[in-house]
Amino acid sequence: MISSSPYLILSAVIFIIGVLGVMVRRNILVMFMSIELMLNGVNLAFVALSRQLGNLDGQVVVFLVMAVAAAEAAVGLAIIICIYRNKKSMNVDDFNLMKW
Q: Domain boundaries in the chain?
């Protein structure tokens, strides 16, 4: 049986790539995809640890996270499209709709 260390390392690498994508990039779609990468990295860690421990708790959490991520993707993309139609820009610095 393969240990969970390679999966946890891969999970950490995917999560770090997502964090760097959110911090470095200014395009809202790239940031949105980076958030999805971070969620997938955490999901991989949950599945790896769940398999190592021999229970299904981590896999149930992954199922719930995937359901929330799907809803977040639908609502988030709709908001991004609406803002793009108004501002004609995908740069995060141009989105100041929530400021007074």
A: 5-90
Q: In Å, how far are 2, 18, 46, 79, 86 from 75, measured between CA atoms?
A: 38, 20, 25, 6, 17
Average pLDDT over residues 5-31: 92
- Phi/psi at 27 (nearest 5 deg)? -80, 130
Confidence band, pLDDT 50/70/90 cuts, at residue 22: very high
What is the second-level CATH architecture of the domain 5-90? Answer: Orthogonal Bundle (1.10)
Amino acid at 78: A
CA distance 47 to 18: 19
| pTM for this entry | 0.83
